[in-house]
Amino acid sequence: MRRLLGSVRARATLGATLVVAVALLAAGTAVTLSLRSNLSGEAGTQAERAARSVAADLAGGQAFDGLSLDDDDRPVQVVDEKGTLVAASEDLERISGTGVAAVRPQASAAARGDEDDEGEDEGDSLEPGEIGEETVFGDGSATIDGETRDYRFAAVTVEVPGRGTLTVHAGAPLAAEQSAVRTALTVMLIGFPLLLAVVAAVTWRVTRRALRPVEGIRSEMAAITASEDLARRVPVPDTHDEVAGLARTTNETLAALERSVERQRRFVADASHELRSPIASLRTQLEVGAAHPELLDVAGAVEDTVRLQRLAADLLLLARLDAGERPADTRFDLGAVVREEAAGRSGVTADAPVVEVSGSRGQLARVLANLLDNGRRHARESVVVSVRAEGEWAVVRVADDGAGVPPEERERVFERFVRLDDARSRDDGGAGLGLAIARDVAVRHGGTLTVGEAPGGGALFELRLPGAP
């Protein structure tokens, strides 16, 4: 059961069914109450009409025994101001809800008033009575001719000269209301479960169809995980909904992951290749030295060792950058770093006023060293480095007078282990990691590193870093 409720389809179906059930319950309750209120109001209107009709006869001087109270469906009582029943329907056997339980008229002052009125001279006219404007309603029951029913009662008062204040109670049956309410409840009890079953079935099928692409995405992702084939892609449904967006985003993530893994594999392969050469050269020199000490090239061994040390340091720095290492937040003078790096290199001219930035002084010094080494390697005679504050940015430009970088290669030069001059010897050209490290460090510091054309026709590298606040 828990596993079933863990399904999105099951939860969606249950949720939709519950919402519809609550809505149907509320609507059914409202309909039943409205129906009962309307029919009860209609019965009250009929009862009031009957009561006022009898009250009109009394106001016109009609005697009690002359009242027309023989309607089988509407029980009627006439009560005097002392609460004595003076007239009632002929077949009335029991009544409740009017406040007077008597069903047989009794003699009263009002009845004697009727007899006195009959003895008056026919030429004398009786003053008409006055019917009250207010009607009081109530519910009760009555037994007429052996049949008991529920009624809506209306009470109307009438002031009759010589009889005092009389109250007429008349009832209208509630059978129609009760029958209609029972019918409505029966329809609801039968129809609501059927409607909920239809809603549940439709929701289950619609949810199944809507989630079918998600299941396709899930199964394909499981297959990709099992096969470790990142070249595969999940199916994208031919829709414009959230599921299609999920599939496209998943494919974009897979593509980025594939590129990352491929880049990592290429990095490991290139690093192994680059490490193999100095290690092999160093081993050869040491083996020769061990066999023939007089032939040992100490300078060459030291050079290969230094080269191997630099390559290992570059690889370690790249590994830290790939791991997301955040640079230090130290405030320092970038111009001073430029002057320090330019001082030890021949042919390098520096124009470096004070420009403060925040970050890792060591990493940015490494960036400047890589850019200056790259400029010296390709320059014919000179390299010019300058530092300027431009708005919120600190900008370092390194320009050489060499051959420059072709426009189509200006992004490729920042890839790892890339050297554009294939004819250049490995010893002179380096491992091809300097510019890649420089760009990664610049990005980690919130800046950019780009290459363009220098005014003298060579390469112009521009490093932009956020200035210190």
Topology:
Elements lengths: L1 H4 L2 H52 L16 E4 L5 E4 L3 E5 L12 H11 L10 E15 L2 E14 L3 E10 L1 H53 L14 H50 L6 H25 L7 E4 H10 L4 E4 L4 E4 L1 H18 L4 E8 L2 E8 L25 H4 L4 H11 L3 E6 L5 E8 L3
Parallel strand pairs: 8-10
Antiparallel strand pairs: 1-2, 1-6, 3-4, 4-5, 5-6, 7-9, 10-11, 11-13, 12-13
Helix pairs in contact: 2-4, 5-6, 6-10, 7-8, 8-10
Give a quick summary of the entry.
This protein has 469 residues and is of the alpha+beta class. The chain is 51% helix and 20% strand.
Care to describe what's here?
- The chain folds into three domains: 169 residues, Beta-Lactamase; 96 residues, Orthogonal Bundle (Helix Hairpins), CATH 1.10.287; 141 residues, Histidine kinase-like ATPase, C-terminal domain (Heat Shock Protein 90, 2-Layer Sandwich), CATH 3.30.565.
- The radius of gyration is 52 Å and the shape is rod-shaped.
- Strands 2-1-6-5-4-3 form a six-stranded antiparallel sheet. A five-stranded mixed sheet has the order 8-10-11-13-12. The chain has a two-stranded antiparallel ribbon with strand order 7-9.
- The protein starts with a helix and ends with a strand.
- 26% of the residues are buried.
- With 469 residues, it is an alpha+beta fold.
